[in-house]
């Protein structure tokens, strides 16, 4: 999947952008607050329908305009597609189209992206909710079944919590909801574990390449409940979850919420056999996150048969010179398309990279 043309109108400080990117590595160069991240954000909004900065659509409109419009021509598995997204501030109307037909976030032909921002550096040492969000985001992109299961689980969880608050755990309704909760939770856990196994296998290889062969990395899915068998299966998970729910019932009634389940699960990262969030340095954690994002790209390709578009915001500033060179070399040689923002062009090979300057929301090709 590669963007062949990008048109942006009145999105933040980007009043008028007509951009034909390279199919390989694209570097968006400029000082801070010139619009580099805004351009990445526009691609992300077109692909997902929402901003990675938690901004509302009205916040995304240029202050002189009534709305924004983003349009992209892109190639996917030999097919040429056109996606557009427009928003009107006065009416609040938002219109998403693919090939001039209305579409939803579940559309199979939509633009797909993997995003890195400086906030992702907290994936290793941050809260479990950040790691769950990372996992959910990509699984929702690659699996409509996961979207259905996750939405269903979220709805059942709310109903179960409501019955806990009302202290109706002896009711028939609670028994039915509890069984549905367990059933849907197992679907979520199985899909997550299967994906983590794929990601772990890929990440080990990627990490070695961009880290110069130093250190060994391992990923493990961490359940919020105990099981009595090392071999994961639907039956083992169901038995373990049901027993833990029964065991925690008194505590759940006291706290009035569900205390075990995939909404509380986690991912553990290990470096050389030690828990990375505790034993890895900040630089090592940074390298792990970057390799994890690359592994996400390759995992998507393995599952869906095509690469998404890679968006990297200010990643080079976080790396030492050696790691920076290894990453740039990897991106320059990759089969996928990358958009990378940077305030520094030192040692970036102009001949293998398409470089554009962004200044005050205007885009221009850097002269070689």
Task: Jot down its keywords.
globular, 42% helix, Glutathione S-transferase Yfyf (Class Pi), Chain A, domain 2, alpha/beta, six-stranded mixed β-sheet, 23% strand, six-stranded antiparallel β-sheet, 368 residues
Folded structure, characterized:
The protein is an alpha/beta fold and 368 residues long. It folds into two domains: 2-112 and 308-365, Rossmann fold (3-Layer(aba) Sandwich); 128-278, Up-down Bundle (Glutathione S-transferase Yfyf (Class Pi), Chain A, domain 2). The chain is 42% helix and 23% strand. The chain has ten helices and 15 strands. The protein has helices at residues 36-48, 57-60, 128-142, 144-165, 172-210, 234-247, 249-255, 276-279, 282-304, 321-333, and strands spanning 2-11, 14-19, 25-29, 67-76, 79-88, 94-98, 101-102, 113-116, 217-222, 266-271, 274-275, 309-313, 338-342, 354-359, 362-365. It has a six-stranded antiparallel beta sheet. A hairpin with a 2-residue loop joins β6 and β7. α3 (128-142) packs across α4, α4 (144-165) packs across α5 and α5 (172-210) crosses α9. The longest helix is centred in the middle third of the chain and has 39 residues, at 172-210. The radius of gyration is 22 Å and the shape is globular.
CATH architectural label of the largest domain: 3-Layer(aba) Sandwich
Total helical elements? 10
CATH homologous superfamily identity of the largest domain: P-loop containing nucleotide triphosphate hydrolases
Proportion of helical residues: 40-55%
Rg estimate, integer Å: 22 Å
Beta percentage is 15-25%
What is the molecular shape?
Answer: globular
Distance between the amino and carboxyl termini: 27 Å
> Would you report the number of β strands?
15
Unreliable spans:
none
Strand order of the largest sheet: 2-1-4-5-6-7
Number of domains: 2
Question: Order of SSEs, N→C?
Answer: EEEHHEEEEEHHHEHHEEHHEHEEE
Structural class: alpha/beta
What's the level 1 CATH class of the largest domain? Alpha Beta
Q: CATH topology of the largest domain, what is it called?
A: Rossmann fold
Can you give the mean pLDDT? 90
Largest sheet: 6 strands, antiparallel
